[in-house]
Write a structure and sequence with these properties.
Layout (H helix, E strand, L loop, with lengths): L1 H27 L28 E8 L9 E8 L7 E5 L7 E5 L12 E7 H17 L14 H11 L22 E3 L5 E6 L3 E6 L3 E6 L2 E6 L4 E4 L3 E4 L24
Antiparallel strand pairs: 1-2, 1-5, 2-3, 3-4, 6-7, 7-8, 8-9, 9-10, 10-11, 11-12
Helix pairs in contact: 2-3
């Protein structure tokens, strides 16, 4: 009886440690009880204005999810502007509407129901031209166009991770708190979203990733803990990336943008 009791105690302690980050974010959040109608959806002013930018633009964003879900995860999306276009198209997945996948004209960098966006990738010019073609193809081939499940997926992060894997121009490392990114469309093995490593995943409930860009991540019930040696960082559930270097942006395609709050902030 002693060994099973020890196992139960250790398991309980480990789960409490995993949930400590989301609990801390919840304690610091000011969004509790706020109606989605009253939340901020204004532009953050990160994206170049389409009327002033002739070249093609592709950007990937992330922001804390709405309400209590933001204690655990971010919502991610992709914005594209073709060369010479007068508006952006925003591509994401939501849990409302008759179709999960949405591609529609809109501002690319709006707050996600009160939570500020963070720029994860920024492509311009010829590289963006090629990426837009491949993004459209990947969206058409997305295997869950009418499905949405907040946990463990398929959800908005499953969609963005899928598109990134299909588009070689998108060298993007999604945050470890992008719950759903590890929900694979087929099988249990796949390339990491950035393409710089590989991962094993059991329907998003459990998995392991090893990648140059993402580092090493252990997924337990959708909560990812890990280390990122290149970014000199640790990754904690709920809290996200804590380190000395930016783990996401591909510096070869980076353009100067306003300094944004880390995605580890819940406000």
């Amino acid at each position: 009886m002693i060994k099973p009791l020890r196992w139960l105690i250790r398991t309980t302690v480990f789960l409490l440690v995993l949930l400590a980050g989301p609990a801390l974010i919840a304690a610091c959040s000011s969004q509790s009880g706020q109606s989605w109608r009253d939340t901020d959806r204004s532009s953050a002013g990160i994206a170049p204005l389409p009327g002033q930018t002739e070249e093609a633009v592709v950007q990937v964003y992330g922001a804390r999810a709405y309400n209590w879900r933001g204690n655990f995860a971010v919502h991610t999306w992709i914005a594209t502007k073709a060369r010479g276009a007068s508006t952006y198209e925003v591509h994401d997945v939501t849990g409302w509407g008759h179709k999960a996948v949405r591609s529609r004209p809109g501002e690319p960098d709006t707050a996600w129901y009160g939570n500020p966006p963070m720029l994860l990738a920024d492509l311009r010019g010829e590289k963006a031209d090629a990426a837009i073609i491949n993004i459209r193809t990947a969206i058409d081939a997305y295997p869950f166009p009418n499905e949405y499940k907040a946990w463990p997926g398929p959800n908005s992060n499953t969609f963005v991770a899928w598109v990134i894997r299909q588009v070689p121009e998108l060298d993007v490392a999604l945050p470890n708190i992008a719950i759903g990114k590890d929900y694979l469309a087929d099988g249990v093995f796949a390339k990491a979203p950035s393409g710089s490593g590989y991962q094993f995943s059991l329907n998003g409930y459990f998995g392991l990733m090893a990648s140059i860009r993402e580092g090493v991540e252990l997924n337990i019930l959708g909560l990812n803990i890990g280390v990122d040696p290149l970014a000199l960082a640790v990754k904690l559930p709920g809290i996200g990336h804590i380190g000395l270097r930016d783990p996401w942006m591909d510096r070869s395609t980076w353009h100067k943008a306003p300094v944004m709050e880390q995605v580890s902030d819940a406000n």
